[in-house]
């Protein structure tokens, strides 16, 4: 109540402290101007002493005269372009136009389904949620669509995910590599040369895995069957530490990985610091991102990617990877989706080999 009485007394007072007191020569004279109604752009509201929209909105682009329709502000060719899109575009295409995302694009489709195609621009304002102001913005957006910026595909720098770090010249000089993937009960490998020719592609069962003490003989029998190569690339798996149920699997992977490093790395009587390491690690997630197999932090099956490579080896003159005929016949039905996924380790070994050789280029 006190605030109300105080406000009334300020209005009623006269003198130099009155609310509407204006000293002579201190302020410019008030001029009547007009604000355009933001809902229909037709009615004009007189105001005094404020900056108006008249300085920023030109009559040529913002219809506001009482005697002109929206059609009068566009040429015949422009009207045809606007009506062509509004009458034929699907809801998804309409949603790409400025201000039409969401309910407005749905309303346009429903309106033209119920009433037929728009015959003129003025009829567009009959669509719910579309008034003169928003209609003008929509029309101008159709005539002058924003430039679409192409999304640049992020290229994975695979060489950064190879451990230990080696000089690039060593990678470039390699003639062939053996990619090794350790599974729960088997080890798979792919022997591929620099020309992307598959020389060998096998897997071997290891029945003693996850059944007690690991003996060197369990791994050495597999190592004895591996072909010679410039580098042996062992897959580095990443298992979430939050999932305690996978601790035994993680311990298994790390144990087999350590034994492979010990058995494959040559022993020198006098260490040669200038020689590159023979055994390397490559991150499983990096290979998955390279082939687009990652869903969040999880990697999906690479069977389809390997199937495409095998098909390209037969159908294309210059395939990404060349498979010998005997391996195509042997493994053509192994990677069928929905099966027992018996060939996942083979798929992973092949994808890692391809990714490594591309990183070495």
TrEMBL record:
<keyword id="KW-0809">Transit peptide</keyword>
<dbReference type="GO" id="GO:0030337">
    <property type="term" value="F:DNA polymerase processivity factor activity"/>
</dbReference>
<keyword id="KW-0804">Transcription</keyword>
<dbReference type="GO" id="GO:0042645">
    <property type="term" value="C:mitochondrial nucleoid"/>
</dbReference>
<protein>
    <recommendedName>
        <fullName>Transcription elongation factor, mitochondrial</fullName>
    </recommendedName>
</protein>
<comment type="function">
    <text>Transcription elongation factor which increases mitochondrial RNA polymerase processivity. Regulates transcription of the mitochondrial genome, including genes important for the oxidative phosphorylation machinery.</text>
</comment>
<keyword id="KW-1135">Mitochondrion nucleoid</keyword>
<comment type="similarity">
    <text>Belongs to the TEFM family.</text>
</comment>
<dbReference type="GO" id="GO:0006392">
    <property type="term" value="P:transcription elongation by mitochondrial RNA polymerase"/>
</dbReference>
<dbReference type="Pfam" id="PF12836">
    <property type="entry name" value="HHH_3"/>
</dbReference>
<keyword id="KW-0496">Mitochondrion</keyword>
<keyword id="KW-0805">Transcription regulation</keyword>
<dbReference type="InterPro" id="IPR036397">
    <property type="entry name" value="RNaseH_sf"/>
</dbReference>
<dbReference type="InterPro" id="IPR010994">
    <property type="entry name" value="RuvA_2-like"/>
</dbReference>
<dbReference type="InterPro" id="IPR039150">
    <property type="entry name" value="TEFM"/>
</dbReference>
<dbReference type="GO" id="GO:0003676">
    <property type="term" value="F:nucleic acid binding"/>
</dbReference>
């Amino acid at each position: 109540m006190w605030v109300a009485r105080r406000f009334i007394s300020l209005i009623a007072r006269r003198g130099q402290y009155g609310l509407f007191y204006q000293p002579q020569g201190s302020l410019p004279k008030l001029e009547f101007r007009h604000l355009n109604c933001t809902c229909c752009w037709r009615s004009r509201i007189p105001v005094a002493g404020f900056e108006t929209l008249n300085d920023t909105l030109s009559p040529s682009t913002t219809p506001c005269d009482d005697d002109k329709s929206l059609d009068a502000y566009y040429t015949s060719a422009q009207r045809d372009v606007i009506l062509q899109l509004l009458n034929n575009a699907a809801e998804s295409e309409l949603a790409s136009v400025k201000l039409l995302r969401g309910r407005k694009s749905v309303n346009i489709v429903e309106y033209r389904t119920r009433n037929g195609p728009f015959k003129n621009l003025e009829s567009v304002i009959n669509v719910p949620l579309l008034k003169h102001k928003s209609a003008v913005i929509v029309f101008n957006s159709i005539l002058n669509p924003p430039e679409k910026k192409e999304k640049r595909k992020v290229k994975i720098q695979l060489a950064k995910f190879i451990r230990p770090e080696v000089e690039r010249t060593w990678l470039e000089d390699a003639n062939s590599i053996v990619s090794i993937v350790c599974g729960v009960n088997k080890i798979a490998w792919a022997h591929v040369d620099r020309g992307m020719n598959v020389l060998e592609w096998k897997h071997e069962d290891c029945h003693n895995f996850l059944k007690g003490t690991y003996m060197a003989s369990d791994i050495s029998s597999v190592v004895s069957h591996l072909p010679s190569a410039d580098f042996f690339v062992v897959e580095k798996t990443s298992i979430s530490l939050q999932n305690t149920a996978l601790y035994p699997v993680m311990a298994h992977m790390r144990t087999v990985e350590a034994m492979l490093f010990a058995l494959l790395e040559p022993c020198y009587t006098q260490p040669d610091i200038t020689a590159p390491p023979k055994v390397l690690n490559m991150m499983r997630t990096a290979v998955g991102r390279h082939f687009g197999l990652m869903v969040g932090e999880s990697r999906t099956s690479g069977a389809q990617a390997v199937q495409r490579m095998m098909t390209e080896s037969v159908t294309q003159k210059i395939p990404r990877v060349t498979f010998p005929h005997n391996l195509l016949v042997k493994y053509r039905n192994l990677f069928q989706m929905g099966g027992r996924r018996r060939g996942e380790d083979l798929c992973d070994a092949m994808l890692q080999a391809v990714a490594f050789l591309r990183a070495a280029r």
